[in-house]
Amino acid sequence: MLHASTTPRGTASTHTGGRRPVRTRRLLSASLAALLTTSLLGLASQASSAAPRPAPVVGHDPVIMIPGMTGTPSNMNPMKSSLQTNGWPANRLFTWTDTSSMTQDLAKAAQELSVKVDQVRSQTGADKVVLATWSASTLAARYYIKNLDGGDKVSQYIGFAGPQHGTANNGCQWYVSCQQFASPNTPFLKALNNPSEAPFNDKIDYLTIRSTADINATPVDTAKLAGANENYLMSGPTAPNHFMIISNATALAKMRSFITAHEND
Question: Domains in the chain, please, with CATH?
Answer without folding.
Answer: 63-261 (3.40.50.1820)
